């Protein structure tokens, strides 16, 4: 994928394990989920009497040290890594967020996803006199919950969440419980794990996380995925489950979780993501064969697909580009020469591997095309005789409103140009994408009934704004004046 990547909002990790060091478990879980958000991180812990919290801007390793972790002592914890899709990257928007509910008491919330009707709910709450401290849709949800009556958090969620539209996985921390909820479409992933020995004196514990890779890191065992529309409560009495009232008959998990967002060592819907991505490469090789000497990838997200392409085509897979592991973004530099240097700093072609070779370059997707458009030039500069680009997903032609920071068709190169035009702009000898049918087969869902493919097809699982334009900073605009009756 080009360096101007799509980003998904955040990672969630929660643990209920009396007697365990829950703060450090959460720290390691967030480390495993760092790929889901690099703007801020936070951990909140309950000791039964109060809830303690630490959050800052930055990576997990930058936000927490021995001093900050030393103050987070308790039996229950939740953590969050953020990439903003609603609200700018600044501390008031960092999570978790704390609220006070009149009947339940302190309530700490961490959210992954995007609420497409957040502006409407915020306007209604503001008209009732509610003041906001941030510009995040997470605070909108929190303010809605504290104004919803209920003696238990489950009852509050069952009343409030049907009003919320869009994608959400939620973790809540109260004084004595860990609560998780997933939207009725199941757009974002969430899983439940068992930690420790259930036969031990403490009875072990439970973990809720965005991905199974976070369970693996802390030595937890996957129990199940949280069902779409399910609310799970974990407290001293055990685990109980209830449902969000909904008429939503289908599932629509984001297909990009399988294509790119989630780590390849995670499992979703019973499927290894590494194997799913390798199968995407196999399907791509069947659909769009190429005469080439070597198969390479733009590391690292396209590697499983490249391996599958090589296996199916019989063309050897080689490491044709080296990626710097210490560069997170390609900075916009003031001159073309420095911009090109920035690309080479991140991706350096292996001249001795590419010299005189016909190269099949496999990547997982193309969004804006800002980097992909320069990679072919770099490969030719390194001596490649031909460059054939193969993309292991269909063209991205529509914006996402469910927690990905692509809100305008104008940002998407495939929405404005044909495949042939894009290939010419990139200077590639050929360019081909995986078909939507091939993607569905690779995902084990040939009918396309369990996933959302809206960014490829424009068919959204829920109604979206007619203008198809949403700004992640929309809640930072001044609210219109509230009419006052005379």
Overview of this protein structure:
- With 486 residues, this protein is of the alpha+beta class.
- It has two domains: 10-252, Aminohydrolase, N-terminal nucleophile (Ntn) domain (Glutamine Phosphoribosylpyrophosphate, subunit 1, domain 1, 4-Layer Sandwich), CATH 3.60.20.10; 271-457, Rossmann fold.
- The protein is built from 17 helices and 23 strands.
- A seven-stranded antiparallel beta sheet has the order 3-2-4-1-10-9-11. Strands 5-6-7-8-12-13 form a six-stranded antiparallel beta sheet. It has a four-stranded parallel beta sheet with strand order 17-20-21-22.
- Strand 20, helix 13 and strand 21 (386-391) form a beta-alpha-beta unit.
- Helix 9 (273-287) crosses helix 10.
- The chain is globular and about 70 Å long.
How do you describe this structure in short?
With 486 residues, this protein is of the alpha+beta class. It has helices spanning 22-32, 60-63, 66-70, 118-127, 137-146, 153-160, 212-218, 255-261, 273-287, 303-313, 336-346, 351-354, 372-381, 413-416, 419-426, 436-442, 454-457, and strands at 10-16, 40-46, 51-57, 76-82, 97-101, 105-115, 166-173, 178-182, 191-195, 205-209, 221-225, 230-235, 238-243, 253-254, 267-268, 271-272, 294-297, 321-323, 347-349, 358-363, 386-391, 430-433, 451-452. It folds into two domains: 10-252, Glutamine Phosphoribosylpyrophosphate, subunit 1, domain 1, CATH 3.60.20.10; 271-457, Rossmann fold.
């Amino acid at each position: 994928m080009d360096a101007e990547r799509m980003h998904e909002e955040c990672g969630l990790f929660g643990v209920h394990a009396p007697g365990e060091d829950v703060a450090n478990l959460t720290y390691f879980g967030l480390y495993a989920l760092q790929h889901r958000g690099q703007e801020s991180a936070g951990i909140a812990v309950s000791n039964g009497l109060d809830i303690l919290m630490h959050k800052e801007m930055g990576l997990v390793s930058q936000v927490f040290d021995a001093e900050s972790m030393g103050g987070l002592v308790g039996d229950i914890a939740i953590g969050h890594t953020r990439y903003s899709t609603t609200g700018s990257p600044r501390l008031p928007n960092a999570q978790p967020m704390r609220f006070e509910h009149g009947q339940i008491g302190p309530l700490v919330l961490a959210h992954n996803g995007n609420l497409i009707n957040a502006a409407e709910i915020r306007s209604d709450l503001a008209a009732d006199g509610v003041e906001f401290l941030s510009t995040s849709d997470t605070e909108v949800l929190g303010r809605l919950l504290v104004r919803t009556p209920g003696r238990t958090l489950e009852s509050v969620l069952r009343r409030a969440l049907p009003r919320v539209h869009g994608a959400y996985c939620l973790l809540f921390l109260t004084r004595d419980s860990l609560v998780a909820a997933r939207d009725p479409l199941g757009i974002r992933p969430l899983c439940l794990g068992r930690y420790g020995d259930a036969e031990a004196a403490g009875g072990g514990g439970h973990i809720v996380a965005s991905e199974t890779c976070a369970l693996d890191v802390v030595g937890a065992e996957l129990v199940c995925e949280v069902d779409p529309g399910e609310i799970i409560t974990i407290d001293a009495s055990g685990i109980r489950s209830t449902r969000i009232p909904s008429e939503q008959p289908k599932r629509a998990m984001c297909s990009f979780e399988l294509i790119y967002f989630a780590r390849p060592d995670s499992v979703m819907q019973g499927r290894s993501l590494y194997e799913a991505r390798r199968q995407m490469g196999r399907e791509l090789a069947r659909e769009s064969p190429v005469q080439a000497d070597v198969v390479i990838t733009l590391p690292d997200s396209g590697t499983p697909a490249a391996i599958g392409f090589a296996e199916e085509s019989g063309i050897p897979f080689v490491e044709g580009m080296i990626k710097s592991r210490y560069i997170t973004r390609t900075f916009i530099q003031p001159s073309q020469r420095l911009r090109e240097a920035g690309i080479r700093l991140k991706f350096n072609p292996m001249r001795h591997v590419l010299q005189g070779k016909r190269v099949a370059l496999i990547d997982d997707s193309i969004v804006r095309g800002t980097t992909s458009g320069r990679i072919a030039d770099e490969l030719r500069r390194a001596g490649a005789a031909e460059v054939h680009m193969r993309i292991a997903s269909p063209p991205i032609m529509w914006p996402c409103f469910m927690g990905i920071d692509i809100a305008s068709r104008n940002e998407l190169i495939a929405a404005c140009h044909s495949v042939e035009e894009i290939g010419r702009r990139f200077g590639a000898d050929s360019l081909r994408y995986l078909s939507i049918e091939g993607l569905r087969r690779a995902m084990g869902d040939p009918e396309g009934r369990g996933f959302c493919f809206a960014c490829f097809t424009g068919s959204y699982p829920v109604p979206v704004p007619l203008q198809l334009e949403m700004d992640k900073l929309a809640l930072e605009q001044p609210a219109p004046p509230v009419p006052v009756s005379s």
